[in-house]
Amino acid sequence: MATIPINTRQQEHEVVSPAEWLVRRKEFLRKEKEFTRLRDELSRQRRELPWEKVEKEYVFDAPEGKVKLADLFDGRRQLIVYHFMLGPGWEAGCPSCSFLSDHIDGALVHLANRDVTLMVISRAPINEIQKFKARMGWRFHWVSSFANDFNRDYHVSFTKEEVENGKAPYNYDLMKVSGEEYPGVSAFYKNASGEIFHTYSAYARGLDMLVGTYNYLDIAPKGRDEDSLPSTMAWVRHHDKYRQGYFVNSKSAHAQDSGKGACCAEGEHSS
What we know:
Blueprint: E1 3-4, E2 13-14, H1 18-47, E3 52-53, E4 59-62, E5 65-68, E6 78-83, H2 95-101, H3 105-112, E7 116-122, H4 126-136, E8 142-144, H5 150-153, H6 160-165, E9 168-170, E10 173-175, E11 184-190, E12 196-202, H7 212-217
Parallel strand pairs: 6-7, 7-8
Antiparallel strand pairs: 1-2, 3-12, 4-5, 6-11, 9-10, 11-12
């Protein structure tokens, strides 16, 4: 079967007739449908996981003042929190977290109409959060957990000792991390009596499904095209940091702007 060069930057790829293309595509469609059914079943089992009651009362710093965890639901029963890597003193948030957060604003109105509030929490003080949020032009609600244990309790912030000893409690294990802040997502439910329950948290590759750009790349001819990079997200930048033409030096890993605190790359915790 003949192969021809697609372009100078890509390896030669198999090219077939329209009839053969259709046969092969329909064969693969059967696998896609099987995967869809498996994903639906996994989602069903996720919803059936037991909940844990949130006994601690968390108070956050928000642009509007002090708010409690219950206030973050904004009148809805379901709350999803993205744990964004922005530590105290950082001049900018993690590029990978920023990449994911670029997908949030467009989903807010749709989620609100399904009884879900989606918002972001970081450990940086609220004035530092507001400064970076303004730079990025985001609209989502973002509060600070600087004055409480929320980040520690949901295993996205670690002590210096945990980092140095390589025993940070992340992704349901003790593991070596590259800094004191890591990403995650957590879901909560508030019942009619006002009781709050933690229903789910995910970390590392569990966040993959939240990144719409990756879903588009997965159907592009070259896919994510990250195998040759220093780490899987080395190409990612803050959206105002891409060079003209939107290309970056893919051989250099991204870094936290200020050099304070290690910014994760997905390859560092890919399981």
